[in-house]
């Protein structure tokens, strides 16, 4: 009788080895990310890793872990490696053609939901994954939302996320520049956007996981970081309903300048700055005339 094949490494040991591998490549949250990657590869939860910590892994299971670990060690963001990111309690598919949703952007949705204003139609301009508009549609069942992005790949991803959350009957995705594709679809009572707002010089100095793997189109706001705002503000009035609410995310250092641009481009509008959880001004709320 032939001897049984030697048992593979225990699950907890694989997590430890993965952690050391990521640490050696400068990943700050190496243990957490190792757990996420191993769990994702095996179809487990992070809790399962410790419930079944002593289970030996087969070679086929190790083969599923290695490419994920290698991708993260190369600098690719964790969300892109596993293809998923949580935003406002919802799961969104992510990819290289769209910015990975950030927790700071949840403030846009919080303000929109808490405004207490009647909204039948909303627009998410520069939508990326569609996380802003889709979350709004999921949380507010009476709102119809149009998503717009200049990158066809982002539009495709946003449409897939709308399908993932079962809101395709109220969410449509369009390819184009800011409000241009919506000129015959307005007016909108609510418009949200997280435009590119780092300067070109800042983009060149971003950490590699962002600069090399996320789309420059969604990050680089030109020499002063305000180019996208100028274009958006020049177009948004053509699709906004009277008294519409415009919500714009921005860099805390430049958001007061965005308010000045907005009030000049849209005379009679009134701007308010909202702070994020770190106490920094993050969102401009503008009530249009």
């Amino acid at each position: 009788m032939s001897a049984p094949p030697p048992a593979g490494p225990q699950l907890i040991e694989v997590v430890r080895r993965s952690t050391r591998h990521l640490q050696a490549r400068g990943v700050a949250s190496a243990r957490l990310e190792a757990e996420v990657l191993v769990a994702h590869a095996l179809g487990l939860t992070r809790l399962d890793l410790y419930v079944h910590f002593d289970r030996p892994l087969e070679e086929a299971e190790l083969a599923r872990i290695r490419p994920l670990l290698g991708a993260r060690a190369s600098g690719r963001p964790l969300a892109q490696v596993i293809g998923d990111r949580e935003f406002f309690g919802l799961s969104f598919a992510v990819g290289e053609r769209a910015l990975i949703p950030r927790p700071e952007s949840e403030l846009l949705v919080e303000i929109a939901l808490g405004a207490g204003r009647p909204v039948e139609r909303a627009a998410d301009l520069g939508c990326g994954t569609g996380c802003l508009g889709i979350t709004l549609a999921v949380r507010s069942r009476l709102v119809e939302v149009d998503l717009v992005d200049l990158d066809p790949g982002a539009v495709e991803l946003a449409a897939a996320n709308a399908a993932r959350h079962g809101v395709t009957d109220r969410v449509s995705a369009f390819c184009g520049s800011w409000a241009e594709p919506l000129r015959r679809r307005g007016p909108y009572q609510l418009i949200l956007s997280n435009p590119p707002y780092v300067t070109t010089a800042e983009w060149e100095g971003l950490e590699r996981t962002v600069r090399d793997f996320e789309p420059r189109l969604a990050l680089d706001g030109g020499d002063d970081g305000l180019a996208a705002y100028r274009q958006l503000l020049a177009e948004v009035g053509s699709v906004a309903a009277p008294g519409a609410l415009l919500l714009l995310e921005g860099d805390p250092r430049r958001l007061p300048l965005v308010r000045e641009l907005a009030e000049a481009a849209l005379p009679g509008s009134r701007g308010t700055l909202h702070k994020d959880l770190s106490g920094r001004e993050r969102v401009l709320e503008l009530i249009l005339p």
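The mean pLDDT is 95. The radius of gyration is 22 Å.
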